[in-house]
Design goal:
Length: 162
C-alpha cells in the first residue's frame, strides 16, 4: 500500500504531472515481469514461524500489493475505496487484522455505495490476485474480414527469464 500511496499523494500535489503513469511503468510493469517467473509466489502466504515474516517482504508483496491496491481504487471508485479503508483503519487500528478484514470493510462500502453488485464480493475478486501467482493476460483478436472478435484470457506464463 505504501508504494501506491507514494504515487497517489504525489498526484494530489502536482495534478498536471503524470504520476500514475509513472507508477504503471516503474512498479506495475516491473512486478508483472517478476510475477510471471516460476520462482514467484502469491502475496498471501501463511506464516508458520516468525523467521518467515522477513522473507515475505519483496517485489511481490510491495509491487504487486501496490498494483492491486491501485486496481481496487479504480474498480471500487476512489471514494468507495477511501470510505472502506478509513472504516477498516478506525476499527482495526489497535488490534490484529487479517486480509479478509480489509475485504469485508471494502465490501460494506462498495455495497453501500452500489459500486459492486450485491452478489459479488471484494474477496471473490481479490483472492484471485492475492492467493495465486501470475496475472490474467487478455487477448483480443479482431477479424475485420468476418466482422468478428475473439477474446481469450489465460494466466501469465511461468518462465525464469525476462
Amino acid at each position: 500500500m505504501q508504494l501506491f500511496y507514494k504515487f497517489f499523494f504525489m498526484l494530489q500535489s502536482r495534478k498536471n504531472w503524470k504520476w500514475m503513469q509513472m507508477f504503471i511503468v516503474s512498479e506495475v510493469q516491473h512486478v508483472m515481469r517478476v510475477d510471471s517467473l516460476e520462482s514467484s509466489h502469491p502475496i498471501y502466504q501463511e506464516v508458520f514461524n516468525p523467521d518467515q515474516i522477513v522473507e515475505m517482504f519483496d517485489d511481490i508483496s510491495y509491487g504487486k500489493g501496490s498494483a492491486i491496491i491501485w486496481m481496487m481504487n479504480n474498480f471500487l471508485t476512489e471514494a468507495t475505496f477511501k470510505k472502506g479503508l478509513i472504516s477498516y483503519l478506525k476499527d482495526k487500528s489497535f488490534s490484529n487484522a487479517e486480509t479478509e478484514d480489509l475485504w469485508r470493510y471494502l465490501d460494506l462500502a462498495a455495497h453501500d455505495d452500489k459500486s459492486l453488485p450485491d452478489d459479488l464480493s471484494v474477496s471473490q475478486i481479490m483472492n484471485a490476485w492475492t492467493r495465486r501467482t501470475g496475472f490474467p493476460v487478455v487477448t483480443l483478436t479482431r477479424d475485420p474480414k468476418h466482422n468478428t472478435a475473439t477474446l481469450t484470457q489465460v494466466i501469465s506464463g511461468a518462465t525464469d527469464y525476462y
